[in-house]
Design brief:
Layout (H helix, E strand, L loop, with lengths): L1 E9 L5 E10 L4 E5 L6 H8 L7 E6 L2 E2 L8 H5 L2 E4 L11 H11 L4 H14 L15 H13 L5 E5 L7 H16 L3 E5 L3 H6 L4 E6 L2 E6 L2
Parallel strand pairs: 3-8, 3-9, 6-7, 7-8
Antiparallel strand pairs: 1-2, 1-4, 4-5, 9-10
Helix pairs in contact: 3-4, 3-5, 4-5
Bound molecules: adenosine-5'-diphosphate (ADP) (2 copies).
The site of one adenosine-5'-diphosphate has 9 residues, from α2.
Keywords: ATP-binding, Cell cycle, Cell division, Cell membrane, Membrane, Nucleotide-binding
InterPro entries: AAA+_ATPase (IPR003593), ABC_transporter-like_ATP-bd (IPR003439), ABC_transporter-like_CS (IPR017871), ABC_transpr_LolD-like (IPR015854), Cell_div_FtsE (IPR005286), P-loop_NTPase (IPR027417)
GO molecular function: ATP binding
Length: about 220
Amino acid sequence: MIQFQQVSKAYRGGRQALQKVNFELPKGDMALLTGHSGAGKSTLLKLICAIERPSDGHIYFNGHDISRLPRQDIPFLRRHLGIIFQDHKLLMDATVFENVALPLRIEQQSDNEIKKRVSAALDKVGLLDKARCNPIQLSGGEQQRVGIARAVVNRPQVLLADEPTGNLDAALSAQIMELFRLFNQVGVTILMATHDTSLLEQYNHLRRFDLQHGSLAEVGHG
Ligand code: ADP
Ligand code: ADP
C-alpha cells in the first residue's frame, strides 16, 4: 500500500533527515514507527502526505509514484489519508462538530452528508454528546479523539499518526490505541510514530520500523 524505495530527504540548510529508506507497509497493516527525537519520524510521515518532498528515491501509494506528484494532484492523495498530529491542530474557536466537518467542507459535501458522517465519526470516538462544545472545553484525551474523528471522517484508507499519545497518560494512551485497533479491524491501514516505550512493550506484536539518525530498520513483524 505504501512503499519507500531508497528515499532520502535533506532539508534546506543541509540537514539530512532520512537516508536511503526502504520499507513496505502492506494494506490492512497496523505498524509503529519508532526512534529517538530527531530520528526522522515526522519527516517520513510528511513525505507520505506530500507535506514534504523527497530529495531522492521513490514513494509509492497504491502503486502510484507520489514522490514527484504535481501540486494539483496532492488533494487526490490526501483524500485517501487521515492525519493525526500530536498537538491535534484543532480550531479552538469552532465547535467540535465544525472541526470534524472540515475535511468534508473542503470536499464540498452536502450539509446532509456532513451531518451524517460527522455524527458517525464522533460516535466512533465516543464524543457525540460533545458536538456543540468548543475543543477548549474538552480534556486533552477528548481533544485528541476529536482529532481522530476529523482524520477518519472521510473514510481514509490509511491513518498516519504522529505521536498521538504524546501528551496523554497511560489510561488515555490505551484508549487511543484501542480506537486505532478498531479502525484497523475494519480495514484501515495504520502507521503510527511513537517513542512511548510502555506502548512498545504492550504492542510488541505489531510490525515496527525503527529509525536511527535517518536510517531505517524493521524490527518486528506482526
Ligand atoms: P522526529 O519526528 O523523529 O523527531 P523529524 O523528522 O522531526 O524527527 O526531524 C528529523 C531531522 O530533520 C532533525 O534533525 C530535525 O531537526 C530536522 N528537520 C525537521 N524538520 C525540518 C525543517 N523543516 N527544516 C530543517 N530541518 C528539519
Ligand atoms: P484509481 O487507482 O483510484 O482507480 P487511476 O489509476 O484510474 O485511479 O488513476 C487516476 C488518476 O488519479 C491518475 O492520474 C493517478 O495518478 C491518480 N491517482 C489515483 N490514485 C491516486 C493516489 N492514491 N495518489 C495519488 N494519485 C492517485
